Amino acid sequence: MFKLPKYIEPDFSQEMFINAPDAVLQEAPVDKAAPRNFHATSIYPEYFKIDGKWYLAEDSRMDCVPVFEDGKIYVREFRNLKKGDKCVVGRTENCEEGIYVHSDCFEKEEAAKAATFAFRQNRSRETGFSYDYKQLVELLKHEKENGGYVVWVLGPACSFDAKARENFAKLVENGYVNALLAGNALATHDLEGGLLGTALGMDIKDQSPHVDGHYNHLDTINLINTHGAIPKFIEEENITDGIMHACVKNNVPFVLNGSIRDDGPLPEVYEHTYEGQDTIRSHVRKATTIIGMATVLHTIATGNMTPTYRVLEDGTIRPLYFYMVDTSEFAANKLGDRGSLSAKGIVTNVQDFMTNLAIGLEL
Amino acid sequence: MFKLPKYIEPDFSQEMFINAPDAVLQEAPVDKAAPRNFHATSIYPEYFKIDGKWYLAEDSRMDCVPVFEDGKIYVREFRNLKKGDKCVVGRTENCEEGIYVHSDCFEKEEAAKAATFAFRQNRSRETGFSYDYKQLVELLKHEKENGGYVVWVLGPACSFDAKARENFAKLVENGYVNALLAGNALATHDLEGGLLGTALGMDIKDQSPHVDGHYNHLDTINLINTHGAIPKFIEEENITDGIMHACVKNNVPFVLNGSIRDDGPLPEVYEHTYEGQDTIRSHVRKATTIIGMATVLHTIATGNMTPTYRVLEDGTIRPLYFYMVDTSEFAANKLGDRGSLSAKGIVTNVQDFMTNLAIGLEL
Amino acid sequence: MFKLPKYIEPDFSQEMFINAPDAVLQEAPVDKAAPRNFHATSIYPEYFKIDGKWYLAEDSRMDCVPVFEDGKIYVREFRNLKKGDKCVVGRTENCEEGIYVHSDCFEKEEAAKAATFAFRQNRSRETGFSYDYKQLVELLKHEKENGGYVVWVLGPACSFDAKARENFAKLVENGYVNALLAGNALATHDLEGGLLGTALGMDIKDQSPHVDGHYNHLDTINLINTHGAIPKFIEEENITDGIMHACVKNNVPFVLNGSIRDDGPLPEVYEHTYEGQDTIRSHVRKATTIIGMATVLHTIATGNMTPTYRVLEDGTIRPLYFYMVDTSEFAANKLGDRGSLSAKGIVTNVQDFMTNLAIGLEL
Amino acid sequence: MFKLPKYIEPDFSQEMFINAPDAVLQEAPVDKAAPRNFHATSIYPEYFKIDGKWYLAEDSRMDCVPVFEDGKIYVREFRNLKKGDKCVVGRTENCEEGIYVHSDCFEKEEAAKAATFAFRQNRSRETGFSYDYKQLVELLKHEKENGGYVVWVLGPACSFDAKARENFAKLVENGYVNALLAGNALATHDLEGGLLGTALGMDIKDQSPHVDGHYNHLDTINLINTHGAIPKFIEEENITDGIMHACVKNNVPFVLNGSIRDDGPLPEVYEHTYEGQDTIRSHVRKATTIIGMATVLHTIATGNMTPTYRVLEDGTIRPLYFYMVDTSEFAANKLGDRGSLSAKGIVTNVQDFMTNLAIGLEL
After folding, report:
1. Bridge-partner residues for D27, per DSSP?
2. Is the distance from CB of C202 to CB of C189 less than 8 angstroms?
3. Rounded to whole angstroms, how far apart are CA atoms A330 and C167?
4. Of B135, C243, C305, D120, which residue has the fewest beta carbons closer than 10 angstroms?
5. What's the gap in Å between the CA of D295 and the closest CA on chain A?
6. Crossing angle between the packed helical segments A350-360 and A162-173, to the nearest 10 degrees
7. Which long-range contacts (CB under 8 A, 24 or more apart) does A229-234 make?
8. Of C29, C218, C272, the CB nearest to B63
9. What are phi and psi for residue D79, nearest 5 degrees?
10. Subunits touching B (CB < 8 Å, at least 3 pairs)?
11. How far apart are CA B40 and CA B90, in angstroms?
12. What is the pLDDT along chain B (363 residues), one digit of tens a residue?
C-alpha cells in the first residue's frame, strides 16, 4: 500500500549544469570558523561542481559548511571545522557559482496532494489528524519491513503514565524503534516508575501521591548512581517494565543528553553538550523516520540536524520523515517553517498518540 | 466495579442546626434584581431553615438566588427573578442565618484518595491520564446501565475529522449520549462533512483541500436553510453519517446555541442568548455526567449552571461528574478552581480522546 | 509622517472588463437562503457588472451574498435575505461571470515591504513588535485628526487591573475611541471595579482578595439591574473611573453582547444574538481601524464582518486596519489567514499593550 | 518605601529543639551517590543539630544533600558528592531526627497579604499585574541602593526587537543588572543585531526581511569565532549597542550555557553542562533577586538552584525574590508550585515587560 515517492535526479545534461563554473573552495582561516562568504547548507540535497563533476552532499544538515575532502563533500558544523578545511564559498543556489540546491526533489502523486501540504503547514487543535495516523502506521510498517531506521525523541511526559510507558515498550519490543534520544529526566522518571511505581512521586497508575514521594526521583537517581550504570540498576533492582528497560533488553541504543535543568545526572548522560550533539547526529545520519514527542529542546535539536532526504547504502535516495507531537501548537509547528513536506506537527497529548499508534500497529 | 460515593446527610439533630434561626426572606424589589444582601448559591448542596424546617435546594447552580415558593426552594438566575419573589438573604454558610452550605458531602474511599484530588486540581500536558480514562469508561457504563443522563458539549473541532465524527456517532448509537449541547459551527461543519465530505473545505478523510472548498460550509448552510430544518435536510439530501445524523436518527435531543461569531445560523439554533441558556439548564437539571470537548464557550456556559450533585427521582443524592477536554491547559483547568472533585480537566486532542473512549467502551 | 496607501482603481478600459458578460442575478428562493451557486463575498473590494456597468460593493464583508437593489449592491448575511432578493450567482473572480475580486488593491511603498507582510503573517512570542507599536501610534493619531472611526473590542481581562482601566479611560477621554464592543463580563467587572475596587473579588490595585469578594460582581450586577441602566447606576452610585464610566461621560457608544456564559445580564446587553451582530456591523460599517484585545469571541465576531477597505463619505477608498492583541498565539493569529495586510496579531498582555500605547500617544 | 520582611529566627530554647537528637551523618558510599535515606534539601532555610548545636545551611538549594564538613553544612549536588562525604540522613522536618525545615520564616505585613499570595499562586492572562510592576520597581531600586545582586536570565526573544535590546542595555548601564545568564542563541541574535541590524535575518527595527538574511546569524557566529572572543568581536567590529555590548562595556559578568539546539557555539559558551550549572550557581549564591524572561530552560535551571532566602555577608537573612516572565501561563507558573511567596509569574511579552520596567525606573 505504502509507497515511497521517487527521487528526481537532476538532469546534469542541461545547459545550466554544463555551463556552471566550478564551485570555489577556500580554506578555513582558523579552527571553528569558515572563510567569509562560506556557503551554508539547507535541508535539501545540494550538489557542488568540483573539477567539472557534480558531487552530492550525501549526509547533509542545515546551517553547516560543505567541505571537500578525499573526493567527497562533508557537511560540517562550524565547531567541527579545522583550519585549512576546504570550504565551498558562494550563496547562490542555481549553478551560478557551481552550487545547486535541489529543493523540489521528490515525485508527487498528484498536484492536488502537493497543494495540500502547502496549505496544511500550520497545524492546530482544529486540524483533523486521522489521516496522519493512518499514514504514520503504514510508514512504520514499511520501515520495519524494509530496514528503515526509526529514531524516537522523547520528553519526560512520555514516562508519567503507566500506559504510555507500556505502549512505548511495545513499540520497542516489536521492532519499531531503532534508537531513542532523550534527556536525563525521561530516563529518571521512567526508571522511578519501574522502581517505585511513581513519576515525581505520583503513582503512574492512578496519579495518587505516594508518602514522601518527592524523594522518589532522588532515590532513583541515587540508586542508579550507586550501581554506576542503568543496565546494572535494571538488572540488580529487578526492573521489569518501562521505556529504558525495553531499550536495554532489546539492544536499542539510547542517547541521553544532559541539560542545565537536570538533577543527577544518570551515569549514561552526555555531559558535554557538543559530544551529545555529535552522538545525536550519528543516529540522524542513519535515520529514515524521526518522531519527536513532547520535547521542544530535544526535538528541535534533532530537527536542526535532519535533512529532508536519506541516501541509502545502495545509493538510492528517499525522503526522511519527521513528526513532532505536542499539545502546544507553538511546539508542534516549530519545525514547520522548514518548508518541507516531511516535517509534520500533530497537536495532541503523547499518551493518546502512543495509544493510537499501538492500536494502528495492532500491538 | 464502579461505585458511586454515598451522600452524607447533614445531621440535623446537631445543636448547630437546632439553634439556627430561620433564614430571612425578602422580596425582590423589581424584576431581574434581588434585595440587597441576597444569598448567592454555590455548586454545593445548600439547606435553608424556613419555619423551623430545613429545605434542600434540590436543583441548584452557582451564583443564583434561592427563592422560597410553594413550599420549595427554587434557585433562580437574576434575570429570571420577578418583583416580589421571596429571596433568602444572608451570606453566612454555617447556620448562623439559617443557611447551611454542605461542601464536603460525599463519602471518600480513603484519605489518600481525597488528598489526591486536592493535589491534582491543576492538570497539564505532564499529567498522566490513563486512570481518568479508566474511571470515565466505568462511569459511562454505569450511567448507561443505571439510567444516568450524560450530556456532551462539543466544539467544532469534534467535526473536522472523519474518524472523530464516526466515534461520536458510535457513542450516540450505543446509548452513551443523552443530550448534545453545541453551537452553530459544530452542526454546520458536521453536516458539511455529511453532504460534501469536507470541513471548511478540507477533506475530512485526508485533509486535502477541495476545489472551491471555501464555499462548502456556505452551501451547506444555504441548503439546510432552504429545507428549513436539519432533520429534513438529512432526510432529503441523504446524509448517512456524522454527529447530527446520529442524534436525529437516535432521538437524542440537541441544543444549538448561537453566538455572535456565527455564519448562518441554522434553523434550530437558539437566537436568543438567555432562551438558549434556559434550554441548556433544562438538560443540566437532568444531568448526572457532563463532558465538554474543545469548546471553552459552551463548556463554561454549561459548567456555570452545573452543581456538584444531583437529586434523583427517588430522592437519593449522587455526585454530578464533569469533564473538560482540551489541548489547552488554560481551557482544561478553567473550571478547576470550582474546588470540586467532580470537575476534571483532560489535556489532549478531542479526536484522540474519543478514539480512546470508543476503545475503552468496545465500540 | 503617516500616509495611507492609495487605492488602485481597476482599469475598466481593459479588455477583460469590457468583454465580461453581465453578472447573473437570481432570486432568493425562500427567506434566509440564496439560490444555488450564489456568489459569496470576500474581505476584498468586489465589482459586479450589471447592465454593462461595474458596481462596487461599497459596504462588504466576507461570506455574504451580494444583492442588487435600488441600483446598488448590498452585501447581505444569509439570515437577512428575503425571498425574491436578487442575488449575484457565480464563483469566478476575474470577470468570467461579471464578477471581479480586487484583492491586490492598495499601493505598496516598496516591494520589500510587501514581502515583509507575507512573511510575517504568523506572529509569535518571538516576533519583535516595537515597529507595530510605532505604526499603531501614528495610525491612531492620523485617525483622530482625520475623522477616522476607531472601534475597540475588549475582553474582560482589560478590566482586571486598575492601571489598565485607567489607560483605556485615557484613550476614550482623548478621542481615540469611537465605539466600544464588548460583552457582559467586561462591563460587569469594570463597574465592579468602580463600585467596590475589585474584579471578581480581587483588589484591582494590589490583587488582594476582599472579604466575601465572590459576592462583588453579583452585588454589582444586582445594583445595576435595580437601577435599570448603566448610566443611571454610574450617576447614582457615584462611579468616577473606569472604562464604562469614560464611555458614558464622553458619549462613546458601547455595544454589549450577551453570551451563554453570562451572569446577569446587565440591562444594556443585547440578548438576541443576531440583533447584537447587526449592531456590531453598524459600527464596523463606519470603522477605519479596529483593535481587538483579549477576546477571541468578540474579536472574531467583529473580524468576520470586517472587509479590508472602507469607502469614505467623499468616495475615496482606504484600508481598514485590524489588530488583535492576545497572549495566545492561537488567538492573535486566528484572523491572520485572511490573507490581508490589515489583520495583525500582537502577542502580549493587553495591560502592557495599553500602557505602551498610552505612552506612545503621550497620554 | 520598600521594606524587606524580617527573618524570624527559630526559637532554639523551645523544647522541640532542646530535646531533638543529633542529626545522623553517614558517609557517601561512592562518588556521586549519597547513603540510602539521605536527607534532601528544600528551598527553605534548614537547620541541622550536630554535637548539640544547630547549624543553618547557609547556601542551600533544593534536591541536594547536606554534607557536614569543616564545621559547616554544605549543600551539595549528587554529582558533586565524593565518597566519604558526611551526609545528613533522615526525612523528617520538625526536629525528630535533628533536622528542622523552617518554611514559614519571614514576617508578613498583615494576615490579609499572606492570604493573597496563597490565592494568587496560579497566574494567568486574566491576572492584574500593575501591582507586581510597582513592587518590582521598588525592589530593583532597593537592590541597587543596598548592594543587592540582581541576576537576569534571558531567552532569545529578548534580542529580537530593537527597543527590547535598548531597554535591557539601559538596565545594565544604570546598575540594575549584576549578572546575565543566557544561552548561545541570546548572545548570537543580540550580536547579529549589533553587526547587521537583524535577528534571524529580520530587521530588528521594522521586522522587514533582509536579503540573504538567513545567513546573518551564521555570518555573525563565524565572525565572532574568527575573532575568538565576544569582547574582541565587539571591539573590532565596532558594535555599539545591544545586550552583550552593554554587559561587556559595564563589566557585568555573563554566563552563556550551551544546549543541544545550538548553532555555533560562540567562544564563551560553556560546553560542559555541569560546569555550566556550577557557574550558574556561583551567581545564584550571591543573588538577592532573580528575573527570568522568556526562557523555560534557563529560568527553570536557575530556579532549581535558588532557595527562598539569602544569608548576607553581615549574617542577616533576607528573602530571595524570583520572577518569571513569559507569554505562556505554563512557563510563567512552572516554578509556582514551589510554594514560596518569592516565585512570581508575570504573563506577558518580555518586550513590553522591559518597556514597563524602564518607565517605572525612569530610564
Report:
1. D86
2. no
3. 31
4. B135
5. 11
6. 40
7. A229/A267, A229/A268, A230/A187, A230/A191, A230/A266, A230/A267, A230/A268, A233/A191, A234/A191, A234/A194
8. C218
9. -65, -15
10. A, C, D
11. 9
12. 688 999 999 999 999 999 999 999 999 999 999 999 999 999 999 999 999 999 999 999 999 999 999 999 999 999 999 999 999 999 999 999 999 999 889 987 654 454 444 444 578 888 899 999 999 999 999 999 999 999 999 999 999 999 999 999 999 999 999 999 999 999 999 999 999 999 999 999 998 899 999 999 999 999 999 999 999 999 999 999 999 999 999 999 999 999 999 988 999 999 999 999 999 999 999 999 999 999 999 999 999 999 999 999 999 999 999 999 999 887 888 776 555 556 889 999 999 999 999 999 999
For testing the chain C interface, which of D126, D296, D355, D363 should be mutated: the one with the most C CBs within 10 Å?
Answer: D126
Task: Classify the phi-psi angles of C228: left when phi > 0, otherwise alpha if psi is within -120 to 50, otherwise beta.
Answer: left
Residues of B with Cβ-Cβ distance to A355 under 8 angstroms? 352, 355-356, 359
For B19, phi and psi rounded to 5 degrees? -80, -10
Q: How far is A328 from chain C (nearest CA, A)?
A: 10
pLDDT digits (tens, 9 = 90+) for C32-78: 999 999 999 999 999 999 999 999 999 999 999 999 999 999 999 99
Give the minimum alpha-carbon distance from D49 to chain C in angstroms, rounded to a whole number.
Answer: 39
Q: Which residues contact A118 (CB under 8 A, 6 or more apart)?
A: none
Burial of C244 (0-12, 13-18, 19+ CB in 10 A): buried
- Residues across chain B: 363
CA gap A76, A38 in Å, rounded: 12
| Order of all β-strands in the sheet with B53-56 | B53-56, B46-50, B99-101
Cβ–Cβ < 8 Å for A352, B348: yes
* C137 touches D: beta carbon within 8 Å: no
Contact pairs from chain B to chain C, CB under 8 Å:
122
Q: Is the dihedral of CA A123, A124, A128, A131 positive or negative?
A: positive
Tell me whether C119 touches chain A (CB under 8 Å): no
- The answer, yes or no, to whether ipTM is higher than 0.85 is yes
Q: Does C161 touch chain D (CB under 8 A)?
A: yes
**Residue in the structure block whose three cell numbers are 459548567:** B303
Beta-sheet pairing, A289-293 with A254-257: unpaired
Q: Which of B38, B236, B259 to mutate to test the interface with C (most CBs of C within 10 A)?
A: B259
Instruction: Return the residue of C nearest to B91 by Cα.
Output: C212
Whether B330 contacts chain A with CB within 8 A: no
Rounded to two decimals, the pTM is 0.94
The residue to which cell 518590582 is assigned: D136
- Judge contact between A287 and A306, C-beta under 8 A: yes
Residues in chain C closer than 8 A to B228 (CB atoms): 30
Q: Which residues in A lie closer than 8 A to residue D261 (C-beta atoms)? A: 297, 300-301, 304
Strands in chain B per DSSP E: 24-27, 46-50, 53-56, 65-69, 72-76, 86-89, 99-101, 150-154, 179-183, 198-199, 202-203, 254-257, 289-293, 309-311, 317-319, 321-326, 343-347
Q: Is the dihedral of CA D208, D211, D215, D217 positive or negative?
A: negative
How do strand C254-257 and strand C179-183 relate by DSSP bridges? parallel
Residue B277: CB atoms within 10 A of its CB come to 26
Residues from chain B that touch D124, judged by Cβ atoms under 8 A, are 330
What proportion of chain D, given as a percentage, has pLDDT over 90?
A: 86
Mutation target to probe the A interface, by most A beta carbons within 10 A, among D273, D295, D296, D334 is D273
Kindly report each contact of residues B52-57 with a partner whose C-beta sits within 8 Å and lies 24 or more positions away, as own/partner. B52/B22, B54/B10, B54/B12, B54/B17, B54/B100, B56/B311
Beta carbons of A225 and A182 less than 8 angstroms apart: no
